[in-house]
Amino acid sequence: MSDYPQLTIRLPAATKAKLSTLSLLTANPIWRIIERAVDVYVQNLPEPERSRLGEIAERLVRGDWPVTSHWEAYRSLLKKSRQRKTDIKAPVETQR
């Protein structure tokens, strides 16, 4: 566990209290509760989103995705998607 990446987040007090209480009642560390909650969340995503998430997450784990925030990743994917559409639809200009 000590070699896991570290994450710092701000939570509403009620959410933090629930996490702490769950940790106490289940005798599990908070990181494990969050890990399980994320797994359940992902399992309930529609297949296209689950598939996309899996591809990007695997690249992040391999260090093959230099993005540091989800907003940057989203913008990057959106830009590539738009560029592909433009490349496909762009008329070929001819010189006269």
Task: Briefly characterize the structure.
This protein has 96 residues and is mainly alpha-helical.
Key traits:
elongated, single chain, 96 residues, 0% strand, mainly alpha
Computed structural class: mainly alpha
Give Rg in angstroms.
20 Å
Range of strand content:
under 5%
Average pLDDT: 83
Explain what you see.
The chain is an all-alpha fold and 96 residues long. The chain has one domain. Helices cover 67% and strands 0% of the residues.
Secondary-structure blueprint:
Elements: H1 13-26, H2 30-43, H3 47-62, H4 70-89
